[in-house]
Amino acid sequence: MGINPRFYGWINEATLKTANHANFVNVRLTYLHLFWVQKSGFSARAGPGDRTQKEENMQKNKQRVMHLDMDAFFAAIEQRDNPALRHKPVIIGGPPGSRGVVSTCSYEARRYGAHSAMPLPTAKKLCPHAIFLPVNGAKYVHVSRRLMKILQRYSPQLEPVSVDEAFLNISGLARIYKSEKELGRKIKRDILDELQLTCTIGIASSKILAKLASGLNKPDGLNIIEDEEMERIVYPLPVRKLWGIGEATEKALARLGIKTIGNLACFPELKLKKVFGKNGPLMARAAAGKLDSPVHGLEELPAEKSVGHEHTFRNDTDDVEQIRAQLLLLVQRVGRRMRKRNVRGKTVTLKLRYENFETHTHRTSLNSYTNNEGQIFSLTEQLWRQIYNLKRKIRLIGVSVSHLVEREPAGLELPFRDEQLRIKADDLLLPTVDKIKDTYGENAIWRASGLLLKRE
Ligand SMILES: [Mg+2]
Fold it and tell me: Are 166 and 26 within 8 A, CB to CB?
């Protein structure tokens, strides 16, 4: 079974550039998770002698989940490939003077307080002697593919969370490998032998708890949480350790006097519902280890919801020509990625971030599905004219297409005949353009208006 390319669809350039995106994916998955909630067959445990046959079976069939997280993945790969970098603070993200953020830090750099998503100049201040490297996305994706293949040897129920993290359904595997600890050790050994990289593994009865377990002792850790140990190990931890609880929720919980996971697990659900709506009781059940969704195999992964690209200008700009040329470049990339993945979409979203970080997004929809960049660009331009405020400089622009389908539903007519002809011509031309780019690189052929793009 191969790796589902949709998974790699999540790894766009921006994902590889910022760890923020990794968090974004996590948040997105958490939401999906909350939608897919299944009531687990959790029940209070009786002593072994009191178990009925039914309980015995439930116990046997209980889901056990492994969460595997590579240690400082991008930095570890660079250190592996260049011995001169080993045992040194390495920061992946770009040159320290640039406006990007830290993608990954080696553990040596973390000791100085540098961390993911931190602006690069800040990391430079904290750790001036660190070695700064650009993100080598293609290399990391290649290693990631090999990693996922190793994991698939153990269980077909593999659900990647990001480029360096995955859930594995390991229910029943402990019997084959003697114990869960042995299974964990064996997977760690395989990864070390074949990729020369270390990882941290958490094992528990739900995805949320497995993820929490892997976060407890990084790097190179192996942590197993048994249900009996919930109160001892998990309850004293701060709520923030729970997947999906961010700073804002943490503060709101603190106002209710909820500091630890145990506080949350024991808090009356009705009161939580008043403050957090239907997510309140879900949080409490997650904290008590009673909330779970199954590990989704690769085939069942939710499809990518949108295809998008963003650009941060080196210097904030109000040069309209320059912005338009950059938009066109982004649209071309979006169109190309959609065609590669063989999807079409009908909603185009334009995102603008002004110099003061104020961010606006506007969207509009076609009445048909497209992956034709000419069509996407004309919608993008419409949106641009609607929202751009000439008095202010732009820091970031982004374009995305959503409402994706793999095949266009039949019977949809395009609005005007001229437009139809132009789009048809483009549809004939684009496969050839794609082939040229595949053979000679992304810059081999451009739309003429892209030439207005100045070197930044
Ligand atoms: Mg990691």
Answer: no
Encoding tokens for residue 356?
Answer: 């003061």
Spatial contact of 209 and 231, defined as CB atoms under 8 Å apart: no
Expressed in angstroms and rounded, the spacing between residue 272 Cα and the centre of ligand 1 is: 32
Residue 361 bridge partners (DSSP): 351
- 97 Cα–ligand 1 center, Å: 25
Place of tokens 């050790």: 185
Six token digits for residue 272: 């939580």
| Long-range CB contacts for residues 141-147, cutoff 8 Å, separation at least 24 | 141/8, 141/11, 141/16, 143/73, 143/77, 143/195, 143/197, 144/11, 145/3, 145/8, 146/194, 146/195, 147/70, 147/191, 147/195
Cα(88)–Cα(107) distance, integer angstroms: 9
pLDDT digits (tens, 9 = 90+) for 286-313: 899 887 777 876 654 445 678 999 888 8
Query: How far does residue 406's CA lie from ligand 1's centre (Å)?
Result: 32
Number of folded domains in the chain?
A: 3
| Beta-bridge partner residues of 159 | 167
Helix or strand or coil: residue 67?
strand
Q: Is 358 a catalytic residue?
A: no
Q: Say what the alpha-carbon torsion angle 419, 425, 426, 429 is, to the nearest 10 degrees.
A: 180
Q: For residue 380, what pLDDT is reported?
A: 93
Q: Within a domain: residue 429?
A: yes
Domain match, 209 and 264 both:
no
Q: What is the CATH number of the domain that holds 198?
A: 3.30.70.270
Tokens of 110: 């973390």
Residue type, 143: V
CB 68, CB 145: distance < 8 Å: no
Residue 42 CA to ligand 1 center (angstroms) comes to: 30
Residues of the chain with pLDDT under 50: 1-52, 54-59, 300-302, 409-417
With CA atoms as reference, report the closest residue to 212 among 190, 236, 192.
236
Residue with tokens 């190990």: 233
Q: What is the CATH number of the domain that holds 255?
A: 1.10.150.20
Distance in Å, CA 235 to ligand 1 centroid: 24
Which residue among 78, 108, 159, 165 is the active-site one?
165
Q: What is the pLDDT of residue 51?
A: 43
Angle at alpha carbon of residue 384, lines to 379 and 385, rounded to 5°:
100
Nearest C-alpha neighbor of 329 from the set 310, 346, 342: 310
Say if residue 224 is in the same domain as residue 255. Answer: no
Amino acid identity at 346: K
Same domain, 281 and 210: no
Residues whose CB is less than 8 angstroms from the CB of residue 81 and which lie 6 or more positions away in sequence, other chains included = none
User: Which residues constitute the domain of residue 77?
Assistant: 51-231
> Residue written as tokens 């790894």?
11
Q: Are 165 and 151 in contact (CB under 8 A)?
A: no
